[in-house]
Structures are given as C-alpha cells and as structure tokens.
Design goal:
It contains no helices and 11 strands. The chain is an all-beta fold. The radius of gyration is 13 Å and the shape is globular.
C-alpha cells in the first residue's frame, strides 16, 4: 500500500494563493486532481518522477506550478491567482507507470484536501 497525504487546503479569497503538499513514501510520478461538488474529477497538474517535467490543465496554466522536493518525497502545488472556480477537493495520486497518463493509471490516491475560494 502506498499512502499519500495531502495538506495545505483552506478557505481563501479570490486572487490569493495556497500551496498544497503531497507527502509520499518514495519518489513517484504524481498527479494533482480536483473534484468540485457535482463535477467529475479532473486533472490539474502533474510532475514526473524523473526530472522536473510537468503538465498542466489549460484552466490553471500560468497560475499553478507543480514542483517536487526529492529529499522529502513531497510534491507541491503552488496555486496563485485563485478563482472561485478553483474551489474543489484536491487530490494527489501516484501514476503506476511513472508517467503523466490517463486517470485510470493512477492507482493510489490521497484522501484529499479542501480548497475553497470565495469571491
């Protein structure tokens, strides 16, 4: 079993920032996903286990940045210029193949952290 733990969520106003953390037991390719009430879970950003290659959803490009601290086996999601539409539960997940592939390839998920952005 691979345990992933997200943290850093909270209630903030639009235009402000949050940094989410995903703690893992090893160096994994990690994807960040979010799910708003009544909406399907969607990919937000991810970073590969090797190097710093990252991928972002179009909705967050230019605002969100994903990075990793290999010494801590932690992946961060820096969220700037937050918008109300960013409100969701954010999850980090491990890709079983070590790539930023389809959601079906992510086999271990954290429990999620709530991000609420007020206008």
């Amino acid at each position: 079993q691979v345990q992933l733990v997200e943290s850093g969520g909270g209630l903030v106003q639009a235009g402000t920032s949050l940094r989410l953390s995903c703690e893992a037991p090893s160096r994994y390719t990690i994807g960040w996903f979010r799910q708003a009430p009544g909406k399907e879970r969607e990919f937000v950003a991810g970073i590969r286990r090797t190097g710093s290659s990252a991928s972002y959803a179009n909705s967050v490009k230019g605002r969100f940045t994903v990075a990793r601290d290999d010494a801590k086996n932690t992946v961060y999601l820096q969220m700037n210029s937050l918008k109300p539409e960013d409100t969701a539960v954010y999850y980090c997940a491990r890709n079983q193949f070590g790539r930023l592939g389809p959601m079906s390839e992510y086999d271990y998920w954290g429990q999620g952290t709530q991000v609420t952005v007020s206008s």
